[in-house]
């Protein structure tokens, strides 16, 4: 199970490091992490990446970036390339988060360029997809599969291989009081998993959108992990979710 959090732009440097130290301390002691049941990750802002990598690597936590540029180098002021992120020890990169699509003009076309750039540089895309409005699970699954394939178009043309993390995040459930319904998540995540089952990319499907303690046991048969936000700003909540993952493994 891949379980982690994007800190978005919530914290400054001091709180990012404090949170990472607290979660790393939990992970370094937790049997779910040390026994290989859970791969934890954290996705801080760009400037905190080097310090977060230094803290996280001792606790077997992966570190991600919240975005990247699709070119490997050049005159792209303000952007950060996949090769530079890889140099810093980044192994995941979030691509196409709903907030970037809504506020920063990201389209399936730019997402596809970024996914290809991540894969060609050995960084696993955390490709964020999700339907915009609440509706029936079958329609949501169809919309997500369309978005997924549009996002993978260039990687497929390049015959890319590597690890792909698909973060299913229904847009209407992000920043909400509660996650999407269990049956909704299970139906869409299962459809995505089935769609990717024989893929040449090594794909995992994780759920995000107001997720917190208590959700994983209800959807664990359909997901490969969790993409957490506000509800793990208290590091103890991260530990609770690791406990849940461990208990699930014990129950199988
Ligand atoms: O977008 C998300 C994770 O990247 C989810 O954030 P929230 O859990 O805070 O809604």
Individual helix count: 10
Top-tier CATH class: Alpha Beta
Distance between the termini: 14 Å
Q: Which class best fits the helix and strand makeup?
A: alpha/beta
Widest sheet: strand ordering: 1-2-3-4-5-6-7-8
Bound molecules: 1,3-dihydroxyacetonephosphate
* Mean pLDDT rating: 97
Subcellular location: Cytoplasm
GO molecular function, one term: triose-phosphate isomerase activity
GO biological process, one term: glyceraldehyde-3-phosphate biosynthetic process
Main location: cytoplasm
Task: Name its key features.
10 helices, 44% helix, TIM Barrel, binds 1,3-dihydroxyacetonephosphate, 17% strand, eight-stranded parallel beta barrel, alpha/beta, 8 strands
Write the layout of secondary structure elements.
Blueprint: E1 2-6, H1 13-29, H2 31-34, E2 39-43, H3 49-57, E3 62-65, H4 82-87, E4 92-95, H5 98-103, H6 108-120, E5 124-129, H7 137-157, E6 162-168, H8 182-196, E7 201-208, H9 216-219, E8 225-228, H10 235-251
Parallel strand pairs: 1-2, 1-8, 2-3, 3-4, 4-5, 5-6, 6-7, 7-8
Helix pairs in contact: 1-3, 1-10, 6-7, 7-8
1,3-dihydroxyacetonephosphate is lined by residues 6, 169, 174-175, 208-211, 227, 229-231.
Pathway: Carbohydrate degradation; glycolysis; D-glyceraldehyde 3-phosphate from glycerone phosphate: step 1/1; Carbohydrate biosynthesis; gluconeogenesis
Catalytic activity: D-glyceraldehyde 3-phosphate = dihydroxyacetone phosphate
Subcellular location: Cytoplasm
């Amino acid at each position: 199970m891949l379980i982690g959090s994007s800190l978005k732009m919530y914290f400054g440097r001091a709180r990012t490091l404090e949170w990472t130290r607290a979660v790393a301390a939990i992970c370094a002691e937790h049997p779910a992490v040390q026994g290989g049941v859970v791969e934890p990750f954290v996705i801080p802002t760009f400037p905190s990446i080097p310090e977060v990598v230094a803290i996280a690597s001792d606790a077997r936590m992966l570190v991600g970036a919240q975005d990247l540029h699709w070119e490997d180098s050049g005159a792209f002021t303000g952007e950060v390339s996949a090769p530079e992120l890889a140099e810093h020890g980044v192994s995941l990169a979030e691509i196409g988060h709903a907030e970037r699509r809504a506020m920063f003009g990201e389209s399936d076309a730019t997402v596809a360029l970024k996914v290809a750039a991540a894969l060609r540089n050995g960084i696993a895309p955390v490709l964020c997809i999700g339907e915009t409005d609440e509706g029936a699970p079958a329609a949501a699954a169809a919309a997500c599969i369309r978005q997924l394939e549009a996002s993978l178009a260039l990687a497929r043309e390049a015959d890319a291989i590597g690890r792909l993390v698909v973060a299913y995040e229904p847009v209407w459930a992000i920043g909400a009081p509660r996650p999407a319904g269990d049956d909704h998540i299970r139906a869409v995540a299962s459809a995505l998993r089935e769609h990717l089952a024989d893929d040449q990319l090594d794909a995992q499907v994780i759920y995000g959108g107001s997720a917190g303690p208590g959700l994983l046991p209800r959807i664990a048969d359909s997901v490969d992990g969790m993409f957490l936000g506000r509800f793990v700003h208290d590091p103890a909540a991260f530990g609770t979710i690791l406990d849940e993952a461990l208990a699930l493994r014990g129950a199988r």
